């Protein structure tokens, strides 16, 4: 059973769509990142996306790069992520996906990684640099441990590739709103609507939209056509500048963008 | 199947495409366009013409007997890629990809560069074809290769110093990939070595294999036989694969790649990827790489900016595991000694990258004995390295010796 699909469906019923919040584990410290994730879950975030700090994050803009390099400088280890995740999932019911570049998973061993993730209560993985074509080990492990797999779909993806992303994903398909990397943007690219429309035509059941979403208004706009609005840099920025209090406020503000409150 | 015929996307268990989905369409487009050019005689003609009238191909070979006296008396023959326009082998690949980019209608070239040679070659092609050019270069490298920064800017390119991570080649590639993800509609990423996602490793190799094809015929005509060993330095591996490729299926020819051991492979400060690394995914391909237990890329070190890279092209990983090529580490000190030796015995100042291959050849010569013929890829000239060399040897007036 997909924890994330269940979470998205519940959010749809309650508030007309889900706010998906990203934060890196280990930033600013491991303990504070646990507290921050719990704070998100208690302040309107329906699905957590917890990033593993990685040395070469090619999909990330400056805000997230800076946060994850601080985590690495502080000595973040992959094994810490499972401890942190276990603490978070013990405290809140919110489904928690881990967002990770592929090499840390490979280095850990794909099967062992999946096992640890499951034991820590994790829902599955978002894999920004793993395409379904290269993902056989992850298909095997995620089936075995009953974990969600979130692959990316881009405005540049062919119909054939969109189909592949839909068939390969479980939880939701991550629609990349724009050709680019993470970071706040003034407007959500119009490419997002047409990408989600295509994904719907190809019968994608759950679609989350990410990249460049940073205001309640944008959350509302995205949730008028998608199941989840993914916010990252804006939350990281809030945490970096104002700690968990500012983070809670930013999450609450973003959540007011959801179409309907219960 | 001949080893030479390997077409990717995989070399055994290496290679592939580990990149964000946003780039797949561009990689598919590039791979398809590249396949088409192989069947299109006008493309080959255009490139050959450019090489003849602009690059200066074929490059000559030079036998270096005074240098070889220090290599156990083996015969050493240099393939003179340093004499190419812009001063290194890099131009072979750059002109090929720039022509391809033109056919794809791209108006903007981006590149990463370590030593600056690839950046200079790309800026040169952009000037020649009237394209916009942005080069990403680690801040550490903009300092140690300042002369090449000036060359690129004079050629009209924008050089962006990269200040995150280790501030070297690895981070320049990350930044170029981020730019490409964002601007892929208008932009061609002119990757400078045989690394990265498919089709780059095969395409870049194919644009460089002319080095070995020419050299094989030149050595045959000079000596009447094939060399016993072919040697090259290995950063990402483009000049090495370029000279190896024509010899891959000549079983009698030993292939030797020399990577940077920096301060020594018993210290943490090295770039000996194939010697000390483990397979993993970096910059879009599975290959040997320097990584810690957690799969975090480790920082490399080399006195040579162009070899200061914790990854390597997938074809080299495959050749290593097959046992077809041998890869050995060469320290900063050994490379600088070889650089000075070639300068003083033959009047040829090589790039510091190249000097790693020369140092390796000196050792090979002693092992193989005086009957041996060793072909070395002289991948680039040392002008760009004069600041580093002057400091290293203390040869500027007023500098401590
Ligand atoms: C002269 C020269 N040789 C070798 C290299 C290393 O690259 P590769 O291993 O791709 O040949 C460089 C890279 O900058 C270079 O400038």
Radius of gyration of chain B: 19 Å
Structural class given helices, strands, pairing of chain B?
A: alpha/beta
Instruction: Output the helix-strand order of chain A.
Output: HEHEHHEHHEHEEHEHEHEH
Query: Uncertain regions of chain B: pLDDT < 50 for 5+ in a row?
Result: none
Per CATH, the class of chain A reads Alpha Beta
The helicity of chain B comes to 40-55%
Question: Which descriptor suits the 3D outline of chain B?
Answer: globular
CATH topology of the largest domain in chain B: Rossmann fold
Using only C-alpha atoms, the radius of gyration of chain A works out to 16 Å
Which percent range describes the beta-strand content of chain B?
A: 15-25%
**Count of distinct strands of chain A:** 9
Number of domains of chain A: 1
How would you portray this structure in words?
The complex is a heterodimer of chains A (262) and B (401). Chain A has 262 residues and is an alpha/beta fold. Chain A has one domain (3-255): TIM Barrel (Alpha-Beta Barrel). Chain A is built from 11 helices and 9 strands. A 9-stranded parallel β-sheet of chain A has the order 5-4-3-2-1-9-8-7-6. In chain A, helix 6 (110-119) runs parallel beside helix 7. Chain B is an alpha/beta fold and 401 residues long. Helices cover 44% and strands 18% of the residues of chain B. Chain B is built from 16 helices and 14 strands. In chain B, a hairpin with a 2-residue loop joins strand 1 and strand 2 (14-15). Chain B is globular. Chain A binds chain B through residues 54-59, 61, 65, 69, 72, 77-78, 102-108, 128-131, 133-134, 151-158, 161, 165, 176, 179-181, and chain B through 16-22, 24-26, 28, 164-165, 170, 174, 177-178, 181-185, 278, 280-284, 291, 293-297. The complex binds pyridoxal-5'-phosphate. Pyridoxal-5'-phosphate binds at residues 88, 114-115, 117-118, 193, 233-240, 306-307, 351, 353-354, 379-380 of chain B.
């Amino acid at each position: 059973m997909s924890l994330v699909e269940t979470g998205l469906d519940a959010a749809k019923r309650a508030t007309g769509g889900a706010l998906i919040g990203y934060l890196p584990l280990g930033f600013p410290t491991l303990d504070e990142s646990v507290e921050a994730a719990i704070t998100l879950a208690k302040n309107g975030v329906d699905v957590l996306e917890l990033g593993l700090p990685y040395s070469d994050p090619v999909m990330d803009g400056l805000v997230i790069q800076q946060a994850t390099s601080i985590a690495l400088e502080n000595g973040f280890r992959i094994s810490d992520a499972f401890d942190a995740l276990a603490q978070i999932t013990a405290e809140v019911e919110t489904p928690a996906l881990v967002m990770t570049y592929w090499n840390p998973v490979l280095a850990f061993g794909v099967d062992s990684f999946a096992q640890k993730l499951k034991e820590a209560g994790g829902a599955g993985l978002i894999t920004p640099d793993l395409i379904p074509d290269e993902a056989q080990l992850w298909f095997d492990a995620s089936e075995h441990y009953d974990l969600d797999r979130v692959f990316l779909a881009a405005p540049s993806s062919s119909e054939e590739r969109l189909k592949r992303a839909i068939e390969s994903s479980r939880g939701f398909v991550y629609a990349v709103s724009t050709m680019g990397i993470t970071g706040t943007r003034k407007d959500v690219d119009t490419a997002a609507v047409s990408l989600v429309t295509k994904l719907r035509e190809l019968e994608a059941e759950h679609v989350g939209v990410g990249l460049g979403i940073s205001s309640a208004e944008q959350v509302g706009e995205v949730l008028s056509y998608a199941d989840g609005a993914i916010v990252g840099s804006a939350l990281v920025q809030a945490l970096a500048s104002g700690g968990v209090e500012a983070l809670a406020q930013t999450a609450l503000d973003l959540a007011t963008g959801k179409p309907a409150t219960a | 199947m001949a080893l030479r015929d390997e077409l990717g996307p995989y070399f055994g268990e290496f290679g592939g495409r580990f990149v964000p989905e946003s780039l797949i369409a561009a990689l598919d487009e590039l791979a398809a366009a590249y396949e088409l050019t192989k069947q299109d005689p006008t493309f080959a003609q255009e490139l050959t013409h450019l090489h003849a009238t602009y690059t200066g191909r074929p490059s000559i070979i030079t036998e270096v007997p005074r240098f070889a006296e220090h290599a156990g008396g083996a015969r050493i023959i240099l393939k003179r890629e340093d004499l190419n326009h812009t001063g290194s082998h890099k131009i072979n690949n750059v002109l090929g990809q720039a022509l391809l980019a033109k056919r794809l209608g791209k108006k903007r070239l981006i590149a990463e560069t370590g030593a600056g040679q690839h950046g200079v070659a790309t800026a040169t092609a952009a000037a020649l074809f009237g394209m916009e050019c942005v080069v990403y270069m680690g801040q550490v490298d903009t300092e140690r290769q300042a002369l090449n920064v000036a060359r690129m800017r004079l050629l009209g390119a924008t050089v962006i110093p990269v200040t995150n991570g280790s501030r070297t080649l690895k981070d320049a590639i990350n930044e170029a990939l981020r730019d490409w993800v964002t601007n892929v509609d208008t932009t061609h990423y002119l990757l400078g070595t045989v690394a990265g996602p498919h089709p780059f490793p095969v395409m870049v190799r194919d644009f460089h294999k002319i080095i070995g094809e020419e050299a094989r015929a030149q050595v045959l005509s000079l000596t009447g036989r094939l060399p016993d060993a072919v040697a090259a330095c290995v950063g990402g591996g483009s000049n090495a694969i370029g000279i190896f490729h024509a010899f891959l299926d000549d079983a009698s020819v030993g292939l030797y790649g020399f990577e940077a051991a920096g301060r020594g492979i018993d210290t943490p400060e090295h770039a000996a990827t194939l010697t000390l690394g483990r397979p993993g995914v970096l910059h879009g391909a599975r290959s040997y790489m320097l990584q810690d237990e957690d799969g975090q890329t480790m920082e490399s070190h080399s006195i040579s900016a162009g070899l200061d890279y914790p990854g390597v092209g997938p074809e080299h990983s495959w050749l290593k595991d097959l046992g077809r090529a041998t890869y050995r580490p060469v320290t900063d000190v050994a490379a600088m000694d070889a650089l000075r030796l070639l300068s003083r015995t033959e009047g040829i100042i090589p790039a510091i990258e190249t000097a790693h291959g020369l140092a390796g050849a000196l050792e090979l010569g002693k092992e193989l004995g005086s009957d041996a013929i060793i072909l070395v890829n002289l991948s680039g000239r040392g002008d760009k390295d004069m600041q580093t060399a002057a400091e290293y040897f203390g040869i500027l007036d007023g500098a401590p010796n």
